[in-house]
Design goal:
With 324 residues, the protein is of the alpha/beta class. The protein contains 10 helices and 13 strands. A 5-stranded mixed sheet has the order 1-7-6-4-5, with helices on both faces. The longest helix has 22 residues. Bound molecules: oxa(dethia)-CoA (UT7).
Length: 324
């Protein structure tokens, strides 16, 4: 008997405030035209004052639980992928747990920056396959607006806030790639690339939250190469390739990276879920947001083969192949 972690529900939440590219024109030397042409981003959402990452995560969780027809008390575990937790500790996941009124099971955060949701899904899958949990809520939630340097045009125009969530449930499968659920995962990190994308503050260094710093064009080069590699690798683990894929649901950092990766995988853009124009880069939230929006748009349907991939600070990168 093969156990699979099957997606039972998906949902998302975006803060009310929409920030169009034009708002940045008054703050730094940039233009709507440059941002659209270089990134594909048109607008992003920013959290309101006092609205925290766990607030966003809890709202996305409620939507995913409703979609699954479940209550929070049905869950065994909550994993939140985030680099912008409300406090240094406790975890955003325990705060989400409290907000959902769940006092059983366990909750913890995963920090792999923009690849966080991929790492969290892989962890949730391992918990389910090892029998430690039957139902796991996996959330990606971020308030990157809080760590942006609004004087740095090379980074402040790129990121946004939001949250997405999926409910995974242990389900019997046949052991073939026709099964619903997570079929393969592929994770990588290389800490020697720390300087390419990091936050210049932290508990044991400055004692402050710090600001995001990025050598964008260097990260871009790694992204184009490594994302297609990891997607191919996870598909190969289950004997599949780009031609079998119904949807690529990529990390939404830059439309040029998304299309270059799709091209390397020989998947046409009609089979790629793209939300970067509306959300900007929401780091660990971008993939579950795209899954939820993709389903709401009628793109993603039950039985579809999906490959998700992401890269971010670390560098850390990886992919998940799942059948919806
Ligand atoms: O999610 C985590 C992973 N992160 C990513 O995947 C981000 C990856 N990187 C990127 O998406 C792109 O590298 C960027 C969008 C960040 C930048 O695009 P690029 O084509 O790599 O541009 P660049 O960094 O090489 O900069 C080109 C020019 C520079 O001016 P000079 O030196 O040619 O005079 C920049 O100063 O564009 C300038 N520039 C801007 N101009 C107007 C940088 N930011 C801006 C801006 N507005 N906001």
């Amino acid at each position: 008997m093969t156990i699979r972690a099957v997606v039972r529900g998906v949902g998302h939440y975006l803060p009310e405030r929409v920030v169009p590219n034009s708002e940045f024109e008054a703050r730094v030397e940039t233009s709507d035209e440059w941002i659209r042409a270089r990134t594909g981003i048109e607008r992003r959402h920013f959290a309101a004052e006092g609205e925290t990452t766990s607030d966003l995560g809890a709202n996305a969780a409620r939507a995913a639980l409703a979609d699954a027809g479940m209550e929070a008390t049905d869950l065994d575990a909550i994993i939140v992928a985030t680099s912008t937790a409300d406090l240094t500790f406790p975890s955003a996941a325990t705060m989400v747990q409290a907000k959902l009124g769940m006092r059983s099971g366990f909750a913890f955060d995963v920090q792999a920056v923009c690849a966080g949701f991929i790492f969290a899904m892989s962890n949730a899958n391992a918990l389910i396959l090892s029998g430690q949990a039957q139902r796991v809520l996996v959330i990606g939630a971020e308030t990157f607006s809080r760590i942006l340097d609004f004087e740095d045009r090379a980074t402040c125009v790129l990121f946004g806030d939001g949250a997405g969530a999926v409910v995974l449930e242990a389900t019997e499968g046949t052991g073939t790639s026709d099964d619903r659920g997570i079929l393969a995962t592929d994770l990588h990190s290389d800490g020697s690339y720390c300087d390419l994308l990091y936050v210049d503050g932290g508990v044991s260094t400055t004692g402050t939250a710090g600001h995001l710093r990025m050598q964008g064009n260097q990260v871009f080069r790694h992204a184009v190469e490594k994302l297609a590699q990891t997607a191919h690798a996870s598909l190969a683990k289950v004997g599949l390739s780009g031609g079998d894929v119904d949807w690529i649901v990529p990390h939404q950092a830059n439309l040029r990276i998304i299309s270059a990766t799709a091209q390397r995988m020989q998947v046409p853009m009609e089979r790629v879920v793209v939300t970067v124009q509306d959300h900007g880069n929401t780091s660990a939230a971008s993939i579950p947001l795209a899954l939820s929006v993709g389903k709401a748009r009628g793109q993603i349907k039950q039985g579809d083969l999906i490959v998700t991939e992401a890269i971010g600070g670390g560098l850390s990168w990886g992919s998940v192949v799942l059948r919806w």
